[in-house]
Write a structure and sequence with these properties.
Layout: H1 2-24, H2 29-41, H3 47-63, H4 67-90, H5 94-103, H6 108-119, E1 122-126, E2 132-139, H7 145-161, H8 166-190
Antiparallel strand pairs: 1-2
Helix pairs in contact: 1-2, 1-3, 2-4, 3-4, 4-5, 5-7, 6-8, 7-8
Length: 197
């Protein structure tokens, strides 16, 4: 029941906190990075780990009042960004990984580039000297618009089921909505009706 779910979630958060402490104990940034990547390679880091890391990064940012605390905040932010990148690389569902990357990208122009990379047909490839070579016929998109739409719908449904801060949930749903609208524009501009079949 609900108590059993809370107990299980608490255990995962405690385990994640211990993993983060093991990363931070390295003391030196490159070694922290190495330990962080190893956690993901070994399958030990999960959503609970990302949550704990994010909470610590936010807390460090809020407490930054002098050079030492600002340095700690930068280290925590770096580790959180690296953890997200590693999670995205190892995510078993490419659409979920792309959605995650898009929702943490603030600049619309960069989101547009990411959406075009994944959702638009590949009309050219770059050779080592960086010259584009046209593809005829174009290759299909790296990610189907249907799979991406399913990932967005699933993420929103999961967010609405969370027992968490209502403002945080609304903000996260709004981020998904913005990304979905931007994806729709890319699909409408770059895909033909035949591509959508």
């Amino acid at each position: 029941t609900m108590d059993a779910l809370r107990t299980a979630a608490d255990k995962r958060l405690v385990a994640a906190r211990e993993l983060l402490e093991a990363v931070l104990d390295a003391g030196e940034l490159l070694e922290m990075d190495r330990r962080l990547v190893t956690l993901f390679k070994d399958g030990l880091a999960d959503a609970s780990f990302l949550t704990i890391l994010n909470m610590n990064a936010v807390a460090a940012r809020e407490r930054a009042t002098d050079e030492a605390s600002e340095q700690r905040a930068r280290v925590m932010e770096h580790l959180y960004t690296r953890a997200q990148e590693e999670w995205e690389k190892r995510c078993d569902n490419q659409a979920n990984a792309v959605l995650h990357r898009l929702t943490r990208t603030e600049q619309p122009a960069i989101r547009r580039n990411i959406l075009e990379y994944y959702l638009a047909p590949q009309t050219e490839i770059l050779v080592p000297n960086a010259d584009p070579v046209p593809l005829d016929p174009p290759r299909p998109p790296r990610l189907s618009s249907r799979d991406f739409a399913t990932a967005v719908a699933t993420a929103v449904a999961k967010l609405r089921q969370l027992d968490a801060d209502a403002d945080l949930i609304r903000t996260s749903v709004e981020e998904c909505r913005i990304v979905a609208k931007e994806a729709r524009l890319v699909v409408m501009e770059r895909l033909t009706p035949e591509d959508l079949r």
